[in-house]
């Protein structure tokens, strides 16, 4: 059996013994039914991996001892921040999961004029927690040892107005530039993906005011979740670590 990878939210070091968190305990103790003496691989977001051995496993608690550690850097040289206008149901979850696998560093859910999702208060807080858990699970699966941040929801204009030194990219069907024409020395990119109905004319004009570069992906109209993953892949091929 492949050694399971488990995220632990607190700093780890060799020779310490820890109790796994509730979600990890449920997965290891109840789902996988692992027992004392079996191996785990842990990571704590520090870009290290930790070899661990289960010392005690019950349905309520799993204790493990950290045996060894090593740096395991699988991060792309491209610092990529995805601004995704929220899509309905599983589409947003799919986008978050796959964008993490493709190397995105930050994901910000956005509200726009044509956004079909309206979440507030407790429902929104629970959804953000769920999205962050999806990002963690994607790291456990794909081997990343840093956890991308799922930020709180922002309005489209507030996100576009932020200036963190990144090159800003917006997809537009009438753009004259493509990802293949971007300068190869770019190391930090903000990628804006609109809603299923697209950005309004006013919103597109607004992105231009905040120095977004319009990019054309190709001749076909893609669904919002397809657009995000296609653009991320193309950026990683051009500027990151896919080839």
TrEMBL record:
EC annotation from Swiss-Prot or TrEMBL = 2.1.1.193
Where does the UniProt annotation locate this protein? Cytoplasm
> What GO terms describe the biological role, i.e. biological process, of this protein?
rRNA base methylation
**Domain named Ribosomal RNA small subunit methyltransferase E methyltransferase: which ranges?**
75-236
Q: Where does the Ribosomal RNA small subunit methyltransferase E PUA-like domain lie?
A: 20-66
NCBIfam families (UniProt xref) = PRK11713.1-1, PRK11713.1-5, RsmE family RNA methyltransferase
Write down what this protein is called: Ribosomal RNA small subunit methyltransferase E
Give the gene symbol: rsmE
């Amino acid at each position: 059996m492949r050694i399971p990878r488990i995220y632990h939210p607190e700093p780890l070091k060799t020779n310490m013994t820890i109790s796994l968190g509730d979600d990890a305990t449920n997965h290891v103790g109840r789902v996988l039914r692992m027992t004392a003496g079996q191996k785990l691989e842990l990571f704590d977001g520090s870009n290290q991996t930790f070899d661990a051995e289960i010392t005690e496993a019950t349905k309520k608690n799993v204790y493990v001892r950290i045996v060894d550690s090593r740096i395991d850097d699988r991060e792309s040289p491209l610092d990529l921040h995805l601004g995704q206008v929220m899509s309905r149901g599983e589409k947003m979850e799919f986008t978050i999961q796959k964008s993490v696998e493709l190397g995105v560093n930050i994901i910000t859910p956005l509200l726009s004029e044509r956004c079909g999702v309206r979440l507030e208060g407790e429902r929104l807080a629970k959804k953000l927690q769920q999205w962050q858990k999806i990002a963690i699970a994607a790291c456990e699966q794909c081997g990343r040892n840093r956890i991308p941040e799922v930020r709180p929801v922002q309005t489209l204009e507030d996100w576009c107005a932020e200036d963190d030194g990144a090159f800003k990219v917006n997809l537009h069907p009438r753009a004259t530039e493509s990802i293949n024409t971007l300068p190869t020395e770019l190391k930090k990119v903000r990628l804006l993906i609109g809603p299923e109905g697209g950005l309004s004319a006013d919103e597109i004009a607004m992105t231009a005011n905040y120095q977004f570069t319009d990019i054309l992906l190709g001749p076909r109209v893609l669904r919002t979740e397809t657009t995000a993953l296609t653009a991320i892949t193309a950026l990683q091929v051009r500027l990151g670590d896919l080839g």
